[in-house]
Amino acid sequence: MILINIDSLSTTELQYIAEQEGVEAWQDLDRDDLIDALEDAFGEQDDDVPQTIKGKINRNRYCNSLTSYRGNSHPVNGLPGTESLPECYYDTSIHLLLRDPQWAFAYWSFSHQVLDEAVDEDGEAQGHFFLRVSQSSLSKSETSSYDIDIDSDDRQWNINLSQMDYSYYVDLCWRDKRGDEQSLAQSNSVEVVQPYWKLSDVPPDGQLAQFYTHFSSLVTREGEIVDNAILREVAQKMSGGVL
Amino acid sequence: MKPAKIAFILNAHLPFVRHPEYPRFLEEDWLFESISESYLPLLRMFNRLADDKIPYTFTISLSPSLCAMLQDPVLAERYTQYLERHIELGEKEVVRCKAEQPEFSDMAAFYLEQSRTNFHDFVELYKSNILDGFKDLEERGYLELATTAATHAYLPLYKEYPSAINAQVEIGVQSFLTTFGHLPKGFWLPECGYYPGLEDVLRSHSISWFQTASQSMLLSPDKVDNGVYRPVHCHNGVAAFPRDFNGTSLVWSNSSGYPTDKVYREFYRDIGYDLPMEYIGPYVHEPEVRVFTGFKYWAITGPSDQKVPYVRSIAQHRTVEHAHNFIYSLRRRTTALGPILEKEPLLTLAFDAELFGHWWFEGVQWLEEVVRLIADGEEEVEMTTPSLFLEEEGESLQIAQPAFSSWGHGGYNAVWLDGSNSWSYRHIHKAIERMEELAVRFGDQLSLKQRFLNQAAREVLLAMASDWSFMMYNKSSSEYARKRVNDHLSNFNVVYSNMCKNAVNTEWLVKAEKRNTIFADIDYNIFNPEH
Prior knowledge:
Chain A is of the alpha+beta class. Helices cover 26% and strands 24% of the residues of chain A.
């Protein structure tokens, strides 16, 4: 329903949605009040959505998406004999997924044994878990790492990738009370490759031609550039700071 | 000066939705609406152009999950019933509009005629299998058909699971071979999702080309000479065709694209929502769940609810203007590029097929106008397909590495990996790992165990569909999407836990096979990492 351009809807349709959404006394509301009530209802549902994304969704008039038909009132039956999914799996492992050149998403799990050994018989913690993010330059022999403290209840984290032209991996680690450290599991690595045009200078005599070749296809007729942070940096560089 | 070349690539895809356990099912309408409003009108347009001896060529990717639904007898029967209901509603609408809203009479008659034509084409012409229509056009040289990932999985998020990537590609290719009788040359990357190295899997299945997001060239680690205006060869020889963002945004921009013109039909005003339930009740879903019926009488008009009646002749006139503007915009750009590029540019215009006709009611007519304008020859534009282009100019392409990219918000993986859907990867990845384990431990089984394991492989693939994560991100039918991911993974776990006990749950198996019938020839051994 978030897809619908709410101002364009008929009053009958607004009433129907209000009824579906459980808006109180929807029969008594006039059109403007219905819109306000629905915006409040959706707003509450969307509190976890960043404002920039909300705008995108509401304007998503002709983008590829399927009509949103199903509200909350029509459950779909599963096959007999199935069980719900566990929250996580009891092996000690960590995985790293590249989200974009600035962020990766890590998720992990602990075995029962690891969790048992993390506390004593009275339930007191014997140390703490942390993530060690390691980065290695793809072009130079430079490596470094930094740590992120996590709780024993945490199972996922967004990892900031501070530099391009690096590969990253994450160790799921344990540090006991004496300060001894141990890697319990290591993730796969992800690479963030440097674009050629982010590093290289455009020769002055070819600047305009290069810029037109690359950017005439990447903007709308209103001058809106493809939504991409790195691209904007490159545009600024290739345009000599004009953009 | 040689004509500029353009390659239209349409991606026809829907997630596999088939619920024979219900008499009628809301989300099955996605398929029925797409057949009625996009696929059949596109086929009629292609055949009309061919009958008029208009030269043209399009590329269409038909996803394996869509092909499976288009060949399914249960869904074909349900689509026929859907058409019968629409014809009945159309007959009632003609009478009602004549008496109550004469300004809508023309459109009511149009919708009735369209439903009758769809019924004729589907039942009589294509014998309930419209894929034959696409196959025929390909054989006559008008279309290049391409495939995509088995369930349209967003591949960059499975990079660490080569067996799953291979399964998605191999089954996509095999499904195409089974359906169309030959191997595909092209592979539509779902959501334009690309990561360096993916071309190696494609090459191992004899794929010659794929399409990428617009920024994949400028963000390449190599110095790409021609931006998006020429495809490149990856280092292994597979060609990457970058999408022209400027050209596609003329249509696809949701703020300024042609479909937003005020004279075009308003998608969101539909009698399924506007008319009283006692009238529309038999044509929406039980119990009194309002849905789009396709009977829409208003023009977009503006951002308020004050709409004016839709006038088809005015909209048709506007599509001609927009077709002229489209060609003019492309030509203006390619002319400016003439002195800069060493060779004539190629503009790759990639869209979802369902945009035309379904979302943009006038879109099919606009496409037809564009083709007829090009055929007039005055516009110095030539249509091609990626394979034709490679035959003619493949040897002259630059070798370069496209950058990791997608066509989603932000240009990378963020749409398919955000707070709404990231929970699913823990479970899908685990299911892939366990499927690999099953394929190794229980290789080459026969009979019931084989069927059990094959069903497990189907469930893993179905859970991987990019649609579910997109719907969760987009908050569109997100509850259904979550349910589908959960169900497929729970189904998989039934097999896994039973096989670990060396058992087969036959009751579950029979029911699961009936429900999720996709990929009848699947061989679960495909998940064996040594496969």
